[in-house]
Amino acid sequence: MAMDRLFAPPAERWQAVSPRLCSLRRALLTFWLGLLGLGGAIVAGVVGMWWLGAVIIVVAAAVYAFGWWLIGRNWRSWGYAERGDDLLVTHGVLFRTLVVVPYGRMQFVDVTAGPAERKFGIAKVQLHTATPATDAEIPGLTPDEAESLRDRLAALGEARAAGL
């Protein structure tokens, strides 16, 4: 399909992000939705509306199943490809996005990992350019991948920017 070619790197293969990103997001979904569903059901039971508690649990279970499926689809949509002069980052299922970041336009590269990411052994690499619209991030990288990508991108950015 012509539309699929729009988001495919020419003669390149997408590098996928770690499945740990999917696991992290599903764990967060389980925690927050379980907390909200159980809390709502307990409150409904305390005020004597047991039927409302049952409805809350059924709705929470449906939202949970949909969220579980959606997180898997979203995780599979993330990818990046390194080319000679730029980095391609793609993501999204319903609204697909392809960001092309020329190495010469990169100002700096961040690697971040919050407490939940560290627990799951993943990090996020964020590229900053002179134009915020071309900033890009790649979540769900293993620490080794993130370190290696950060170093390669920083070196390529310095080499390309030196010619400006």
Automatic annotation (TrEMBL):
The keyword Membrane applies. Residues 75-153 form the YdbS-like PH domain. Keywords: Membrane, Transmembrane, Transmembrane helix. It comes from the Bacteria. The chain crosses the membrane at residues 27-44, 50-71. It holds the Pfam family bPH_2. This is Membrane protein YdbS with pleckstrin-like domain.
